[in-house]
Amino acid sequence: LRCLGADCLFDTEILSMNRLGLRVLTEQGAESVRMLDKYGRFMLLGLLIKEHMEDFEIFRLSAGKLGFTSMLNDFISEFKQQDCTLDEIDEMLAGSGDDPLLGAKLRELKGEIEAYEEAIKGRFTDTEDYIAMYVDAITDSKFVRGKIIWIYGYDNITPKLADAVMALA
């Protein structure tokens, strides 16, 4: 209240970024999204790993274990939150000439990311792609236009979240 120079606040809403995103998408009639959360991605990755078991060389021993699926799930989430692309993996592969082990690991991870993206394409939207959807919608939103927005409690701001903050600004 001190910062705003006001005696009271009316019509205040506290929303997470995803809830704000849903509100913006609903305003524009684009809220009907088949979401794939981290648990759904975990199950899908388990299936994809089994289907591609023969493609693994480096990760062959760990590929059938839950820990590997969990690691791959987290890797894909971070990969997408940091706005990384498969082209960047290709660049890393080109620079890994002195380290064949690194190259093999990168190729296997790239193959699983490609299989994952192909599996969800046109069927599901994962949380990271959902952020991109509402970031694009924020600029045309009447809901956020003219509002005072405070962002609180973020210890770590990923490039995807930074895009949302910039769009809100």
Rounded mean pLDDT score? 89
What is the number of helical segments per DSSP (H or I, 4+ residues)? 7
Radius of gyration: 20 Å
Low-confidence segments:
none
Strand order of the largest sheet: 1-2
Note the gap between the termini: 21 Å
Secondary-structure element series: HEHHHHEHH
Shape field = elongated
Strand content: under 5%
Structural classification:
mainly alpha
Bin the helical content.
55-70%
Topology diagram in text:
Layout: H1 17-27, E1 35-36, H2 38-51, H3 66-81, H4 86-94, H5 100-120, E2 125-126, H6 127-138, H7 159-168
Parallel strand pairs: 1-2
Helix pairs in contact: 1-6, 2-3, 2-5, 4-5, 6-7
Would you kindly provide a written description of the structure presented here, covering whatever features stand out?
This protein is mostly helical. The protein is 55% helix and 2% strand. The protein has seven helices and two strands. The chain has a two-stranded parallel sheet with strand order 1-2. The chain is elongated, with a radius of gyration of 20 Å. The two termini are 21 Å apart.
